[in-house]
Amino acid sequence: MVSKEDKANFATDKENLASTRRDINQSMSDEDKIKWLDKKQGKRDIDNAEEFGVDRGLVKKQYEKGEIIAEKHLPNKIDKAKFYSKDITKTGAKEGAKMGLQQALGLVFCEFFEASFVEIKDIYANGFVIKGENSQFFNSLKIRLNRIVKKIANKWKDALKAFGDGFISGFLSNLVTVVINMFVRTGKRVV
Predict the structure, then answer these.
(1) How far is CA 81 from CA 32, 102, 174, in A?
(2) Which of 17, 147, 152, 169 is buried most, with the most CB atoms less than 10 Å from its CB?
(3) pLDDT for res 163
């Protein structure tokens, strides 16, 4: 939610930096520091605090200090609102486009298969002979394919409507998912 510059400012905030040994820092990596203390790495019988000779009190004190400093660098409500509105719009448009395209293509494919089966049934019943037309195979095939294309082309308004309905559905389902996730996360934090 914050800019790269703000992230860099937090990472280099002198109030938040603490000197430590290189081997400890490498072992901690980006893991939660309090959890790291009690973790047993590899096949060791002792935890990290004992292995590295770390004073739990000092780590806890620095951790709490870091939590307070982190609060200064967290995004404010306006930054959060900007982030969520931009993210919801972006993901909503993407999901809407996917669902709209699925519905439009679904309609086109259904029409294609329906028109194709009508022509196949007619071929089965009448052969390649078409009343009033040259009965050559390729000419008959061309006429039948043109009829299929015309039937599909006549459905462009329906396909456009299906895309619009799918877009709205996809956008709203994305919005509902985001809202539900926000409540679930908030509920977990409360618990």
Answers:
(1) 27, 31, 17
(2) 152
(3) 96
